[in-house]
Amino acid sequence: MGKINTAAIVGGTHGNEFSGIYLLKKWDQSPELISRKTFSTETLFGNPNGYRDNKRYLDCDLNRQFTEKDLADPQLMNYEQSRAKAINQHLGPKGDPRIDLVIDLHNTTSNMGPTLILLQLDAFNTQLAAYLLEKMSEAIIVVEDQVAMEDHFFLCSIGKQGLIVEIGPQPQSVLRQDVLDWMDEMTQHILDFVDLFNEKSLPELPASFTAYRYHETLKLPMDEAGERIGMVHKSIQDADFTLLKNGDPIFTLFTGEEVCWQGDYEAYPHFINEAAYYDNNLAMSLAKKVEIDVIR
């Protein structure tokens, strides 16, 4: 990809994820903090009505509404579906967007630390990941390239490039200083990288980097009536990105029985016991640890 000319930082895509919302307030008051010389940066409040009502969303998850099919469907008109269409008109349209880079800021209740989620692995994204890991040693890279960029339903997929900054652990509707500071720092590093990328003046980068590629999602234990009958096992609670082997316990049933993982690969759980996923009874995501070559 060529030069990035326009970037948009989105906060509050989920109305109860406060770090991005309060960083937008800070940057709107002091726009020089996100200003760089080789491209323009703007901000967008994703779901203001969700924030007003102190909810993740009012009708449906805004960050699942951005496939081209859904954006083009005039029958999808609840609040978040309508909001998605408005955001697409403002930043996009998807497929031929006004904005080159969309950075979407999120919090998780899971113990994922400062995580950057990439949706594709081209020169821009692989160089960014390598740069970020050099500048922010505690950062973690997750890759969700299981579908093509144009087929993703995430808000950030509107842009020619899209990134998800995912920082936790932070309870819903709460601010934690360590989490907000991580989000601020990671966003600043991303903006610095774009400036250097545009100028073709990046420092020497390693040939590869370690990342976690999404593989599958596990559901909470449920009975035939759809009622939960267990919970995430205490041994993996808060142990995001820690190796899970075949036979390790992952759930404890309310009867006291342990359920162990039966897998044929070495897995790395993340989004463990994420509060926002309980409405879909999702327990965690599993990733494979991979080494990604940096594309020059």
Automatic annotation (TrEMBL):
Question: What remark does the entry make about the cofactor?
Answer: Binds 1 zinc ion per subunit.
**UniProt-annotated binding residues for Zn(2+):** 14, 17, 106
User: Which key words are in the record?
Assistant: Hydrolase, Metal-binding, Zinc
Spell out the protein name for this chain: Aspartoacylase
Query: Which cofactors, by name?
Result: Zn(2+)
Q: Which SUPFAM superfamilies match?
A: Zn-dependent exopeptidases
Catalytic-site annotation from UniProt: 166
Q: Which residues form the AstE/AspA barrel-sandwich hybrid domain?
A: 208-289
The record's listing under Pfam families reads: AstE_AspA_cat (PF24827), AstE_AspA_hybrid (PF04952)
Succinylglutamate desuccinylase/Aspartoacylase catalytic domain boundaries: 4-193
The family annotation for this protein states: Belongs to the AspA/AstE family. Aspartoacylase subfamily.
> Which InterPro entries would you find in this protein's record?
AspA/AstE_fam, Aspartoacylase, AstE_AspA_cat, Aste_AspA_hybrid_dom
Q: HAMAP family given for it?
A: Aspartoacylase
- Which GO MF term does the entry hold, naming one? hydrolase activity, acting on ester bonds
NCBIfam families given for it? PRK02259.1
